[in-house]
Recover the amino acids of this structure.
């Protein structure tokens, strides 16, 4: 069992901070400035140290001291993680417990995946895509899902960031447009409570050129928790597993970017998202114009900006 000071030092190394910056009173958001990617990375890292952090526990954690309390509580003897096989809890290279250098943040949770190797003729069939993580899972969009998805799209806390950017369509209009231009979409559901908490979509696919667009939104009580990154990771892996896209684009107004900045390659070496475009003063919100950013995720075994540029 780690002492509080040892725990704080280990967390500081994981985050790439000076040990003096991480104390029991340090707040994950306000003091340490952790975005969604780094929050989920920290959550899973502490899980690997022996903590049994439930979804409800994590949503209540605000400080390093509270996180240490989860670690001290340990893991019940019957609480093995075998039920989340195939997720990023331990199989993802980004989940390695190496604390890394103190001069740079640890790599955030990856949203890219290697292409599966083809099965030998006569060999076993490849496994089905993984749609469940430790906290969240992806569920099909059914007619019964529409009321939740409509509420998510128009609720003030989420709507201005999401599909209609603050506009409130009629319910019949929303139903009619739900699948327009959409290649695949899922309801994000809590494994612990079974309730829907978000929406993930892949839209405007361009099969000839090998790209598509990705978007995701979660309920206000999950925003900033980092848990949505797990669902986004599952969704991106699913899209790359099913279709031979070279890359997936994320378009977002710049005021949304702080939630994902830890995944950008300009902020973390080896980050899974590449900033590939900036539309100057493109979006309007609260009295000013904001840039729109275009980020791209690549499957690790295929094209990347470095490989493409090197071949020119």
């Amino acid at each position: 069992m780690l002492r509080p000071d040892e725990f704080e030092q280990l967390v500081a190394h994981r985050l790439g901070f000076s040990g003096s910056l991480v104390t029991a009173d340090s707040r994950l958001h306000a003091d340490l400035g952790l975005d969604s990617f780094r929050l989920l990375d920290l959550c899973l890292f502490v899980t690997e140290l022996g903590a049994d952090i439930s979804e409800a526990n994590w949503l209540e954690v605000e400080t390093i001291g509270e996180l240490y309390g989860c670690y001290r509580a340990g893991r019940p003897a019957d609480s093995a993680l075998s039920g989340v096989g195939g997720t990023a809890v331990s199989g993802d290279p980004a989940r390695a417990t190496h604390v890394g250098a103190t001069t740079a943040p640890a790599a955030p949770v990856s949203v890219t995946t290697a292409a599966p190797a083809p099965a030998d003729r006569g060999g076993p069939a490849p496994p089905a895509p993984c749609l469940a993580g430790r906290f969240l899972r992806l569920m099909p969009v059914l007619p019964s899902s529409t009321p939740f998805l409509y509420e998510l799209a128009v609720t003030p806390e989420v709507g201005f960031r999401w599909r209609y950017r603050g506009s409130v369509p009629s319910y019949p209009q929303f139903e009619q447009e739900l699948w327009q231009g959409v290649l695949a979409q899922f309801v994000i559901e809590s494994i612990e409570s079974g309730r829907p908490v978000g929406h993930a979509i892949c839209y405007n696919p361009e099969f000839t050129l090998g790209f598509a667009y990705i978007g995701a939104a979660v309920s206000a009580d999950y925003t900033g928790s980092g848990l949505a990154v797990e669902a986004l990771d599952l969704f991106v892996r699913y899209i790359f597993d099913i279709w031979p896209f070279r890359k997936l684009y994320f378009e977002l107004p710049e005021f949304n970017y702080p939630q994902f900045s830890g995944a950008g390659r300009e902020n973390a070496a080896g980050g899974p998202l590449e900033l590939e475009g900036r539309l100057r003063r493109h979006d309007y919100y609260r009295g000013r114009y904001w840039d729109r950013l275009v980020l791209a995720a690549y499957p690790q075994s295929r094209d990347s900006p470095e490989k493409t540029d090197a071949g020119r």
In short: The longest helix spans residues 227-242. The chain has two domains: 4-95, 136-310.
